[in-house]
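Listing 4. Sequential folding, example run.
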Amino acid sequence: MSEELKSMRISGRISEEQYIFVDAFKGKSFNDKLSNLLQFYLEYPSKHAQMEREIEHLTETKLQLLKEIDALKMGKQKITDAFQMFDRMMEDTKRDLSVDRIQRMIRHSGYCPTQQLITDIRQLDQLTGKENTLKDIKEGHKAQSYSSKQPEVQKLVDNVYSALHQQALEQVHGILP
């Protein structure tokens, strides 16, 4: 095909823009470049169809990837939900163990574990970051250990000590068993 085009001689005028356009194609001479331009346009419909097929394939791949991303997001959310439920279960278990520990400690010391006592000791444990014993609470009350640094902790210590002291007085006077 290119030999046929090379054998025919045609002359004509072209603008500078057209010359620059033709010059952009590969070739040693202007005629080679013009031949490559013609060859490109003869093959253009098949290349265009091939490009459209590739674009269609890429679009399908993109849609499939988007579906997979959505599935991964849903899976990630399910895992996150499961971990949050696990964390809540752990907190509930810790709370239950904490309440059991506090109730046993109060009973073992001869007192009655009231809801307010349990709540105050749990809150005290959270604020101090340790599991307080009744001995810790008694010493904290007597020494006023927290009064200057943590007045809210001192208030809890004093409340628990007062409640236990009140129960001891009631036991002495025969009000509590």
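-- end of first protein; second protein begins --
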Amino acid sequence: MDKKDEISVSRQHIDSKMINRLRIYTVIAIVMLILVAYEVLQGTFSIQLAILGIFGGLIVGSIVGRMYRLDWDEDNSNVTGYIDGIGVFILIIYLIFIFARAHYLGLAIILSITAGTMMGRVMSTRHNINKILRAWKIL
């Protein structure tokens, strides 16, 4: 199965709300990365700080990606996501992080962290979706 067929099969077995959520996160990440690149080119902050923020955001995004528990819905034959107890705890910590970072960090690092966080969430969710689809021998 080539990559194009794999993507097509994946989409038909993923809840539409989850697909839309991943698209929104991807768009936000792209916009933030463009803003970060612009700020670096303008000399507002260093490329090292931008990279550090993006990598930090990737770590945060990977952890926050756990907020939604992914499961296989046999009735609909697709992967669905819901927030469980651990997800609620992670959501609360994530909200505290969001509000605290604005107070302690500058705009440059906030843009970088946000871009990295969105990318991390997308990558983490995609990884978990593929794990489920492989376990059910769909991919």
